[in-house]
Amino acid sequence: MNNVGVLPPWLVLDPLLHGWLLEDIGRGDRTTESLLSENATPGQAQWIAKAPGIIAGLPIASRVFQLLNDQVSFVGLVPEGAKCEPGQMIAQINGSLDALLMGERVALNLAMRLSGIATLTNIYVEKIADLPVQLVDTRKTTPGLRLLEKYATVVGGGTNHRMGLDDAVMIKDNHIAAVGGIGEAVIQIRSRIPYPLTIEVETENLGQVQEALQHKADIIMLDNMPLNMILEAVQLIRSQDNRVKIEASGNVTLETIRTVAETGVDYISTSAPITQSRWLDLSMRIK
């Protein structure tokens, strides 16, 4: 499976990487700078997988080292989205030892975090791979890491939901409560948003589903509904407006995702691959 995740340009990512390097290096790497003369000692390192999983984040790790020294060569030995096994070499790095040692922790941390997300995402995706439904992520991401965590979701086979509040309109329960109803919320928003933003409405019961249909929502989210209600909601929506996309959300687990997918929804959204994933264990060995 090698799913193609598109990274933002380095113009966007470099300030983040700079900040994370500064956080780790501080006023200087006391150990490395005491042992080595700057840029004087060439070296080689290997990255080894210590657990099975899906690899994500190698281009980002490469950039970390190149920000420290643009002569560093980072060669990924597996493509993004590839499965790795314990003991497998996944990258080889050549360059000044000071850059390799100073960049090691930040580069590994990012790759391990992203690979963990990609790995758990892929487990979820495999549960529904034969059904016409997409797994999508949420905005429950680590502040500062959203772009990369959502990138890892795609590498693992998932689909990105909106990246931020400016991507699309999602009318949630608190919005509905604030203005007094779905209809009023849709009317106000439709008169103010730019084309071609879509409008999604979060619903909790069949009455709200009907109201969202009446006001021509583009996407209707079925939030935390029991399975029998999801089935009724899907039938109601399909019978009235086959144009509307249907998203199921709330308390989706590996045990329930397939049953939810079999109801006929178009999307299943869950934060679990990001919020519940474990880092994939990787290590760097200097040769």
UniProtKB/TrEMBL annotation:
Reaction catalysed by this enzyme: nicotinate beta-D-ribonucleotide + CO2 + diphosphate = quinolinate + 5-phospho-alpha-D-ribose 1-diphosphate + 2 H(+)
Keywords associated with the record: Glycosyltransferase, Pyridine nucleotide biosynthesis, Transferase
GO biological process: NAD+ biosynthetic process; quinolinate catabolic process
Positions of the Quinolinate phosphoribosyl transferase N-terminal domain: 29-115
A GO cellular component annotation in the UniProt record: cytoplasm
Molecular function, one GO term: nicotinate-nucleotide diphosphorylase (carboxylating) activity
InterPro entries: Aldolase_TIM, NadC, NadC/ModD, Nicotinate_pribotase-like_C, Quinolinate_PRibosylTase_N_sf, Quinolinate_PRibosylTrfase_C, Quinolinate_PRibosylTrfase_N
Domain spans labelled Quinolinate phosphoribosyl transferase C-terminal: 117-285
EC number(s) on file: 2.4.2.19
Pfam families from the UniProt entry: QRPTase_C, QRPTase_N
Pathway the protein contributes to: Cofactor biosynthesis; NAD(+) biosynthesis; nicotinate D-ribonucleotide from quinolinate: step 1/1
SUPFAM superfamilies according to UniProt: Nicotinate/Quinolinate PRTase C-terminal domain-like (SSF51690), Nicotinate/Quinolinate PRTase N-terminal domain-like (SSF54675)
UniProt function note: Involved in the catabolism of quinolinic acid (QA).
Subunit structure: Hexamer formed by 3 homodimers.
Family, per entry: Belongs to the NadC/ModD family.
Protein name: Probable nicotinate-nucleotide pyrophosphorylase [carboxylating]
Native source species: Anabaena cylindrica (strain ATCC 27899 / PCC 7122)
Organismal lineage: Bacteria, Bacillati, Cyanobacteriota, Cyanophyceae, Nostocales
